[in-house]
Amino acid sequence: MKVKTNDTVLVLTGKDAGKTAKVLAALPKANKVIVDGINVQKKHKKARSAQEVSSIQNQSGAIDASNVMVVCPACNKATRVGYKTEGDKKFRICKKCGAVLETKREAKEAKKETKKAAKTTKRKTKKESAEKTAADK
Fold first, then answer.
1. Sequence ranges of the domains in the chain
2. Radius of gyration of the chain (CA)
3. Residue 34 is inside which H or E element, if any?
4. Per-residue pLDDT tens over the stretch 78-107
5. How far is residue 101's CA from residue 5's CA, in Å, rounded to a whole number?
6. Third-level CATH fold of 1-46+53-71
7. Cβ partners under 8 Å of residue 96, min gap 6
8. Distance CA 41, CA 55 (A)
C-alpha cells in the first residue's frame, strides 16, 4: 500500500470528495485508511456505570486506499507514488516533481543523522579552536 500514516491525502470519491486531510491509520490487510474528518460516523456510547454519561460521538470511518491520492509536500499537488532505491534503502517519490515523500519515521532518522553530523562538527571546531589557542600562546 502506497499510503502511509501521517501522509496528507486528497479524497477522490464519495461525499467528502475534494477534501485534503491527514491519515490517522493505515490498514494494509484491508487496503483501507482512516483519514481525519473524512467519512464521519456517529457512534452511540452507552453508560456502563452510574457515574458515566451516555453520548453520541463522532468518529472517522475507514475508506478504501484507492479513493485517496497522496499530496506531495514539495509541490502541494495530488500525485501518484513511485519508488526509488539508493543502496539498500527504498524511498517513496512524487511522480510529478520527483521529491522524496518522507514519513514520520524517515523524518526522525534524517533528524538523528543531522544531529550526529552537527555534534561531530562541533567537536572538530572545539578541537581546532583549542589547537589554535595553544599555537598562539
1. 1-46+53-71
2. 23
3. strand 32-35
4. 999 999 998 888 889 999 988 898 755 555
5. 12
6. SH3 type barrels. (2.30.30)
7. 72, 75, 77, 79
8. 14
